[in-house]
């Protein structure tokens, strides 16, 4: 049976975050700077929308990604090999142009004592991605967080992303991808382990 308006909350719009006047004015200034008129009808609600959208793009500032690694498991049937989550899509924004960074990450670790629910690795990634970033820092933050809180034998993070500041402006080079990686523990010190994790990631 399809829902009807009598189902109550289902049809209620979510409460909208209030947007301070100075934030709206900043967006209006930017619209004027871009060459348009912030008072034309189609743009009247845009400052509020943009401000609220930015709260979503930057939602990571409101969280400590390490909290996602606090629930760990110790009993995994004696499993002591690499755990890998690959092709994790993410979105971020570059701190230089506030332009979208769209990419995918592969996150691997070699557990010592603690393992974590795999969704939590993606949550750590999003917690750091949903901020103003450079790709190098994002890569390092994800790896460091896992290294510190899971105390594994090794961590590997590889991120591939397209930077809109390069594809849609500036050097205008669509299709170009940036790759960054951070290896810790024996993925860094042992050539064979490093090759193994990169092969599992598809590199
Ligand atoms: N290393 C690194 N550079 C980035 C990242 N995101 C954007 N950039 C680069 O940051 C640089 C900023 O350079 P600037 O010369 O200050 O800015 P710009 O004049 O807008 O540079 P162009 O993009 O070349 O037009 C550019 O080369 C961008 O491509 C990132 O995640 N890591
Ligand atoms: Zn940029």
Automatic annotation (TrEMBL):
Zn(2+) binds at residues 94, 97, 165. Keywords: GTP-binding, Hydrolase, Metal-binding, Nucleotide-binding, One-carbon metabolism, Zinc. Its EC number is 3.5.4.16. It catalyses: GTP + H2O = 7,8-dihydroneopterin 3'-triphosphate + formate + H(+). Residues 24-201 form the GTP cyclohydrolase I domain. GO terms for molecular function: GTP binding; GTP cyclohydrolase I activity; zinc ion binding. Coiled coil: none annotated. It is an enzyme of class 3 (hydrolase). One of its GO terms (biological process) is one-carbon metabolic process. Homopolymer. Toroid-shaped homodecamer, composed of two pentamers of five dimers. This is GTP cyclohydrolase 1. It comes from Sphingomonas sabuli.
